[in-house]
Amino acid sequence: AENPGTPFFPGCFKMLVFLGRFNIHQGLRSVGIRPAIQQALASTRVTVLSPCSGHAGIIRKGERIMRNRIEVRISFICRIVVFGSFAVLIVAQMAVASGFRNPPDGAGAMGHCGGKLTLTDDASLISHNPAGLTDLARPQGMAAFTLVSSEAKFESAIPLMGTAKTTSDIHWLPSLYAAMPLAEGRFATGLGLTIPYGQSTEWSQNSLFRYAAPYFAELRVLDVAPALAMRLNDRLSAGFAIDFMASDLELRQVFPWSAVTGVPVTPDGEATFNAEGQGVGAHAGLQWTLSPRQLLALTYRSPVKVEYEGDFNVSGMPAGFPLPGASSDFDTVIRFPSVIAAGYGIKVLDNLQLGVDIEWIEFSRYDKLVLDVGPLNALLPETVIPQNWEDSWTIGLGADWQVTEALTLRGGYQYVESPIPSSTLAPTLPDADRHVVSLGVGYAWKGHRVDLAYALSLFEDRQARNPNPLLNGTYELSSHLFGLSYGYVF
Fold first, then answer.
1. What is the pTM of this model?
2. What is residue 66's predicted lDDT score, i.e. its pLDDT?
3. Residue-level pLDDT at 321
4. DSSP conformation letters of 42-54
5. Which of 104, 113, 146, 334 sits CB 3.0–4.6 Å from 173 for a disulfide?
6. Strand, helix or coil at 119?
7. Which residues of the chain have pLDDT under 50?
8. C-alpha span between 186 and 236 (Å, rounded)
9. Do the domain assignments include residue 3?
């Protein structure tokens, strides 16, 4: 089984085969590739599946039909077209992370994952519902850590293509919070440092997909969020936070120079991309105490536009090769989605609380990806690639059981809908609707507080119905989350 690599942009491979003909036969001519290479490329007819085509790919050289094994054929197609569209692969890897939000910050919120808007009672309210900060009686600080372990399996619908399995990577997500009530509880302020979006994956450089996906990819988004909350009256509170986001990206991928020179023994190079970007957004919340035992919460998170600028470099360029250079500037834009959420909490018993959350995430903002590779636009003109993501919903239930004054047990359930339609689903971006089940425990003593949580994501098997049959198959996914938080109340 080969490793398909980390998930990235769902239309990437579809776009890659679609652009192959243009870039090989026209893009290379535009920069004056020497006649010998030009003739060699022109004599190789590559008929590949476009997004609107219904025919399988056939490779012909002269009048001879090459009928090797499916794996060899597909690998050769990738090597031929990857040169003209390689920059697209690099940017595509970035875009996927904008479609995934990291798990909720704080082990307490993770433990009752389906009811965090009304059940959370620590400084992580800065992220979940800043209006709830007015309920904090004393200043407090909190540090939280989340470990993520995930795995994806893919079985191709094409005979002899086989299966693929990602490596089970473990990553950690830290967060820090500080909150303080003011004016006898009429106001509250706080500061949160979190990583709301991010992904990091590394796999073998010799995998079947080494020319179609980066073997190393990392995206990190740091959110610095100062917050202010105010109690409007005895029943209603409002909170507001500004999100200052800073993000960086790093990708590395094997680059097949042999596909460019036409000489099979030409050593591969390595392409790297590094970029940084910033963006500003906001989120706000309202909290209404319906009765001494009932609570209603409403929150809104604005979209955030992050503009990335960086460098693109390719190592191992053959001597004398007529390109303007193996490096260029690179830029793109990622639009993180807006989120509207509502939560209802009720104290069923004196020591038992239930909460229900529902969220709407505006992933339809990610309907296309615009690319710009600077000086290398001669090979790949600025391209607009459709994505057609859909708005999605989550709904969940959480519970807190205060066993003793110091000990609290938690449980939660959440249904998460995937925003990716089957028409753009690919092995490089496995995603599906999922059921999340969580458990948690908290213990508090003398101002100290420790929370632990575990969450299991049960994904539904997904069948891809992509216009390109090469991307069709069955997807099986799994994910485990472990949370630890420590807080101190002053």
1. 0.76
2. 39
3. 66
4. HTEEEE---TT--
5. 146
6. helix
7. 1-99, 379-381
8. 11
9. no
Looking at residue 74, its amino acid is I
Token pair belonging to 389: 């993501």
Question: For the segment 399-416, what is each residue's pLDDT rounded down to a tens digit?
Answer: 999 999 999 999 999 999
Of 362, 222, 414, the closest CA to residue 306 belongs to: 222
In the structure encoding, which two tokens stand for residue 58, read together? 């056939």
| DSSP secondary structure letters along 175-190 | EEEEEEEEGGGTEEEE
CA distances (Å), origin 384, targets 7, 24, 251: 20, 19, 21
Contact between 283 and 304 under an 8 Å Cβ cutoff? The reply is no
**Whole-number pLDDT of residue 153:** 82
Sheet strand arrangement including 44-47: 44-47, 58-61, 64-65
How far apart are alpha carbons 451 and 140 in whole angstroms?
Answer: 15
Instruction: Copy the structure tokens of residue 7.
Output: 């998930």
Task: Give the Cα separation of 474 and 152 in Å (integer).
Answer: 11
213-239, pLDDT tens digit by residue? 677 777 789 999 999 999 999 999 999
What radius of gyration, in Å, describes the C-alpha atoms of the chain?
A: 25
**Residue 244: φ, ψ to 5°:** -100, 110
Neighbours of 410 (CB within 10 A): 26
Domain of residue 350, residue span: 12-489
Q: What is the predicted pLDDT for the residue at 465?
A: 85
Of 438, 436, 441, 394, give the one whose Cα is nearest residue 110: 438
Considering only CA atoms, which of 194, 173, 73, 42 is closest in space to residue 124? 194
| CA 379 – CA 207 distance, rounded (Å) | 26
- The Cα 269–Cα 254 span in angstroms is 6
Contacts of 444 (CB under 8 A, 6+ apart): 406, 408, 450
Name residue 479's amino acid: S
Token reading at 188: 């509250």
Looking at the domain assignment, is residue 30 inside a domain? yes
φ/ψ of 23, rounded to 5, equals: -70, -35
382 belongs to a structural domain = yes
Please give the pLDDT value at position 466: 78
pLDDT of residue 199: 72
Question: b or e along 32-65 (b: 16 or more beta carbons within 10 Å of the residue's beta carbon)?
Answer: ebeeebeeebeebebbbbbbeeeeebebeeeeee
Both tokens assigned to 51: 């997004």
Number of domains in the chain: 1
| CATH number of the domain within which 470 lies | 2.40.160.60
- pLDDT given for residue 83 in this prediction: 38
| Inter-CA distances, 282 with 94, 182, 304, Å | 22, 22, 8
Model pLDDT, residue 207: 66
The per-residue pLDDT for 350 is 94
The answer to whether 107 and 147 have CB atoms below 8 angstroms apart is no
Residue 4 lies in a domain: no
